[in-house]
Fold this protein.
Amino acid sequence: MIPLLAVFQSKLQSSSMMGKSSLTLSVVGAALLALSGCATTQKSLTPEQCQGSNWQEVGYVDGMRGRSGAYFGYYTNSCASVVGATPNRVMWEQGRQQGLKTYCTELNAYKVGREGYDWQPVCPLEGIEKLEEAYSQGRYYYIRQRDLDYLRSPYPFGFSGYGRYGYGPFGYGW
């Protein structure tokens, strides 16, 4: 990805007609486009990760993220082609249970709701009402804040000034 960005940047710098601000904007836009592709794709594990992972530690991190036991299938599929590398389900599940102790707290439930994420149903049923209440309060705050930000935007109802009867770059758009 970095070589692609370097090639793109060098081509933009060779253009003498572009100003410095448009060059910067173009490079930033290309970087964001490249990074957005990385963020949405889930990569498989490397052979080194399959063979050398501490599965209890991996499970702990997955538990802290609220992942279910079914997520272990991702590791099994990723490591299926690597000879001699079998993920340890028992160690992973032990770590995940420890991580769930961090995930299944009222403070974390509130934080997950406030950040706009979905609550994962992986917590034990005892005390679930308190967790759901904390999540609901955080989610309420998130929705209120999102709505206020929307209403504070310059064109809250979708009117951007452009369109059939709005102002365009060259005057009226009629």
